[in-house]
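Worked Example 4.2. Consider the chain below.
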Amino acid sequence: MTKPPDHETRMTAVFGGTGSMGNGGAMRVAPLGGYFAGELERAAEEAAKSCAPTHRNQEGIAGAVAIAVAGSALAADPHADVFDAALPHTREGPTRAKIERAQELIRERTTAAHAARVLGNGSRVISSDTVPFCLAMTALRLPYEEAMWQTVAQGGDRDTTCAIVGGLIALRDGANTVPEGWREEREPLPW
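Applying the procedure from the previous section yields the following structure tokens:
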């Protein structure tokens, strides 16, 4: 019987040997940023480790790092600028370039619809098409419910974009920012 390839080999073999540059690592990482509130460097390190089982491409890792660091900053200071927090920890590449563009759009007072047209809305299911848009949605500083409706209205990978934006806003404004009716409808937790 042949021994199956190790995890490292499997993860680097997908997508023609480049690994996944998808948005799943970013989708799951906002709570990690909250756990390391105010420890931006540590949040970046742990985010890279957290997505390693599924995302070996540097772009997939960059997206997870950007969201974790933004979450870490917001959990420590609700007035933190997500771009000023994330950019120093995000490696050069398409994700970082579009995060820089997202920062420009926010300075120009963009709308959610315009941000989605310029940055993407997650429909390509890759980091550079998802993370910049989510940071822009968070930077619009909308209340939780309005941010969720504005995010979902832009189409694309709605479950991912709403998970990211919702996670960041909950870190910024506290868990009770989620409307009570929405919390009552969630799946029960086992504890």
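The mean pLDDT is 89. DSSP finds twelve helices and no strands in the chain. Compare this with Example 4.1 before moving on.
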